[in-house]
Write a structure and sequence with these properties.
alpha+beta, single chain
Length: 153
Amino acid sequence: MNSDDFEKRMRAHEYFHALRCLPGAWVVLCLDGHGFTYFTSIVFEKPIDQHFRDWMRETSRVLLEKLHGIYAYTESDEISILFRPDWDLFDREVEKIVSLSASIASATFTFACKQIVHFDSRIWIGVDKEQVIDYFRWCQEDASRCALNGWCH
């Protein structure tokens, strides 16, 4: 067996490797700090910590620039990055997009706060502008609920 055949056989087991975001659809990357409830409870001021806010903004900015997004929204330990329907970075490969975005976010925030943190990443797909608007309205409603809870406690 030659090495090309062997490589093809091995790549066939990369299950999500061929999964792509729908062509022509709006893509939102949804990143979430992993284990941030505990992390923020021991390190940061409540209900709002200016350093945490600044580090989340910087992480969002880096993601937006590196991945060629058009809009970034962050609240609490969550970041959403919006991409145009014609965005084609990494050939819209889901596995590459979620792994690299989580890596970029984790590295950026870790570098800023000097403590190791982790982000996970997933993809949301919208077929039209109205769905995209609804997605960010949903984010804003969650942010309002979290802000009210934070100030009440």
